[in-house]
From TrEMBL, chain A:
<protein>
    <recommendedName>
        <fullName>MarR family transcriptional regulator</fullName>
    </recommendedName>
</protein>
Automatic annotation (TrEMBL), chain B:
<dbReference type="InterPro" id="IPR010920">
    <property type="entry name" value="LSM_dom_sf"/>
</dbReference>
<keyword id="KW-0812">Transmembrane</keyword>
<dbReference type="InterPro" id="IPR049142">
    <property type="entry name" value="MS_channel_1st"/>
</dbReference>
<dbReference type="Pfam" id="PF21088">
    <property type="entry name" value="MS_channel_1st"/>
</dbReference>
<feature type="domain" description="Mechanosensitive ion channel MscS C-terminal">
    <location>
        <begin position="180"/>
        <end position="257"/>
    </location>
</feature>
<keyword id="KW-1003">Cell membrane</keyword>
<feature type="domain" description="Mechanosensitive ion channel MscS">
    <location>
        <begin position="104"/>
        <end position="168"/>
    </location>
</feature>
<keyword id="KW-0813">Transport</keyword>
<feature type="transmembrane region" description="Helical">
    <location>
        <begin position="86"/>
        <end position="102"/>
    </location>
</feature>
Length: 418, 271
């Protein structure tokens, strides 16, 4: 299905909404599962033995893509287009009767691009699906309030129709004083006191609230995970945003094809590598994580590296070619060893709230002062977290997310379902 | 009895010095293997978290039992011919020796084997036996070692299994319920305090929120007792978890004007 911009909406990460119960991790084999578990165990055992906190580096000799090349071959998605696709998907569900609630609660794992897409909804041109402009509901400056204050705050918000909350995680703090706003909103939704709206919610945030309010059955929807085929189509679409030639990506070690994926219409049969399948499994179908790994796995041909920074270079050829490094050759961030719980508290707090500034991080994690500063510094050096330039919020990096999730799970923390 | 000892004498008269050396080598190798397992496996387990840690710790006594059985099966044919008569002579003598001289030791050895089968406690479990509470560090042939929260090692003979009550907090899992108690004077909104304490439990970073959290209250002549029941991330976090719940709970209760009950010393500890 192509949208008005020619983008393939079925290949879009937000183009297919499903119920949370029907979400399944992309298929994997027993061999891969065992291999992954052994790797995780070995990583835990190696902690403290091998030097840590080294930024990841590629283990091959091919030149990495320059910023200019990366923006052309594997750019970040067009979140305006994703927002349009999301609204269209919701409208389709409503039309077919598969979804009939006024408020759509969309739960997605971090880096799905949900927040970035929903925040752009108010700037979209009115369409058939949404004739009136969307209204953004922003969180209050101070999240610490009583139930009475929360009621009053929501009374002041216009929730009569076409409202959007890009991230519900911005409306609470894991602190006894920071829990008032969300129960009030959810109870209003359950009572039917709100008009049509969309709420985006991080899967970690929802994991907490679904336990805190076990009777909150709000029929959350979620983007379907990206399997190998959808990843291939999406990467192809992303490259088409800037490049007018089709992208051909082949494995650097054996020359097998990664992109384009097989299209029954063109009649050409290529021998494909299992890279996209491995990527779908490693990222658990998470588009942001998959894109980050994809960007780091791409390599230029040596002769292309010279032309990399010259956007005026006239490139010849029918295809844009690049090479892909095998996943085993990519050195991804590894978790730090810690003898206390500080690292885990910080990472869990950041995921619960989809990023926090330092003051709120202290409040939520209970780690304060020098120990917090030292832990943050170690995590930054290990490329596990980063600080947003504009917001100043600390966030987990997409490349660090898989190891963070896995370690939090093995350390006993409640993790999301994705 | 004289016949038994006579048979035993005849039994060992055929043992050569070469057979003795072979048997000694096998026993030494088995002892070394057991030593390595007991040192290395807990070290590796200490680097892991969650269930893999518990499974690895629990495998140590089982591996040791397997090695001991294999060693006996290998050594006996080296020393003697394993005929029916010879076995009766050996086990008869062993039975007499154990029955008279090492009764309690044998009792603990047998209980140790039952422990491996019934698994009333495993390494990594938090147990209380005869008023001693701690984490099972290792299960030996004769006794289990627990480490108390004050880092004291307590040896509990397996024979205790026959006649003592054994309380196991997590029973082989990584779920251990903790209880934080709050004693307040009467005259406050009970439901409001219950809600506050539930929020305290949900917002502690140590809390395993996927497990049930509950607050129960009981009335006393001097006031109310609230018990917050929740699970820490890992059993070894239990004391830090209860401390965190207590500190956060007292802080928020003070903010909402609830007064902690203070019992007169003469009532609290009558001597």
């Amino acid at each position: 299905m192509k949208d008005e911009n020619g983008a393939d909406s079925e290949g879009s990460p937000l183009g297919q909404l499903i119920t949370m119960e029907s979400w399944r991790v992309p298929e994997t084999s027993v061999r891969r599962t065992v291999k992954g578990a052994i790797r995780h165990l070995m990583a835990q055992l190696r902690q403290g033995i091998t030097p840590e906190e080294e930024p990841f580096q590629s283990l091959d000799d091919l030149p990495v893509l320059s910023e200019w090349q990366r923006e052309r071959i594997a750019p970040y998605p067009d979140f305006f287009a994703q927002a349009r696709t999301l609204v269209a998907s919701l409208e389709t569900l409503r039309t077919t009767g598969a979804f009939n609630r006024d408020v759509a609660l969309i739960v997605a794992p971090p880096f799905s691009g949900l927040r970035e897409s929903l925040v752009r909804l108010p700037t979209l041109e009115p369409s058939e699906a949404a004739p009136a402009p969307w209204r953004l509901v922003a969180p209050p400056e101070d999240l610490c309030m009583t139930q009475a204050q929360a009621r009053q705050w929501w009374d002041e918000q216009d929730l009569s129709g076409d409202w959007v909350i890009p991230e519900l995680g911005d409306f609470w703090l894991r602190h006894p004083a920071g829990l008032a706003l969300i129960p009030e909103l959810l109870s209003r939704m359950a009572a039917g006191e709100t008009g049509q709206g969309i709420i985006g919610c991080s899967s970690w945030c929802w994991q907490f609230w679904s336990r805190y309010l076990p009777d909150a059955h709000l029929g959350p929807l979620t983007p379907a995970p990206l399997d190998a085929e959808r990843l291939g189509r999406w990467f192809g679409n992303l490259a088409a945003l800037r490049e007018h030639r089709p992208l051909v990506a082949r494995m650097a070690d054996d020359g097998l094809y990664v992109l384009p994926i097989d299209d029954p219409d063109d009649g050409v049969r290529r021998k494909h590598a299992g890279f996209l399948r491995d990527l779908a499994i490693a990222s658990r179908g998470n588009p942001g994580v998959a894109l980050a790994v994809w960007q780091h796995a791409l390599r230029a041909r040596p002769e292309e590296s010279a032309e990399a920074d010259d956007p005026t270079t006239e490139e010849s050829g029918k295809y844009r070619e690049c090479w892909v490094v095998h996943m085993d050759q990519l050195s991804l961030p590894t978790m730090l060893q810690s003898y206390d719980r500080a690292i885990g508290f910080i990472l869990h707090a950041l995921l619960l709230h989809d990023g926090l500034d330092q003051e709120r991080l202290e409040m939520v994690s209970g780690v304060k002062g020098a120990p917090l500063q030292l832990a943050l510094s170690r995590l930054v050096r290990a490329d596990i977290i980063e600080r947003g330039d504009a917001s100043g919020h600390w966030r987990v990096t997409p490349l660090g997310y898989p190891t963070v999730r896995r370690h939090l799970m093995s350390w006993g923390y409640p993790v999301d379902d994705f | 009895m004289e016949e038994t000892f006579g048979g035993l004498k005849g039994l060992f008269s055929t043992v050569t010095s070469q057979a003795m050396v072979e048997a000694a080598v096998v026993v030494a190798a088995a002892a070394l293997l057991i030593f390595l397992i007991q040192k290395l496996v807990p070290g590796v387990a200490g680097r892991l978290g969650g269930k893999p840690r518990l499974y690895l710790l629990a495998s140590v006594p089982l591996l040791r039992l397997v090695i001991i059985i294999v060693t006996i099966v290998v050594v006996v044919p080296i020393l003697i011919e394993p005929s029916f008569e010879n076995m009766v002579a050996i086990f008869g003598t062993l039975g007499l020796a154990l029955g008279f001289a090492f009764k309690d030791y044998a009792n603990s050895l047998i209980a140790g084997i039952v422990t491996l089968y019934e698994m009333p406690y495993r390494p990594g479990d938090w147990i209380e036996v005869n008023g001693k509470y701690g984490e099972v560090r290792s299960i030996g042939t004769r006794a289990a070692e627990i480490v108390t929260p004050d880092d004291t090692v307590v040896l509990i003979p397996h024979s205790t299994l026959w006649n003592a009550l054994i309380a196991n907090g997590n029973d082989g899992t990584d779920n251990l319920m903790c209880v934080a108690e709050f004693h307040l004077t009467a005259g406050h909104d009970v439901r409001s305090v219950m809600t506050l304490l539930r929020d305290v439990a949900f917002t502690s970073p140590y809390t395993k929120t996927m497990k049930p959290i509950s607050v129960v209250v009981a009335q006393h002549p001097w006031g109310m007792t609230y018990r917050v029941k929740a699970y820490p991330l890992e059993p070894r976090d239990q004391f830090r978890f209860i401390s965190d719940l207590t500190a956060r709970g007292m802080e928020i209760l003070a903010q909402h004007g609830a007064c902690p009950a203070s019992v007169p010393v003469s009532v609290a500890s009558p001597v």
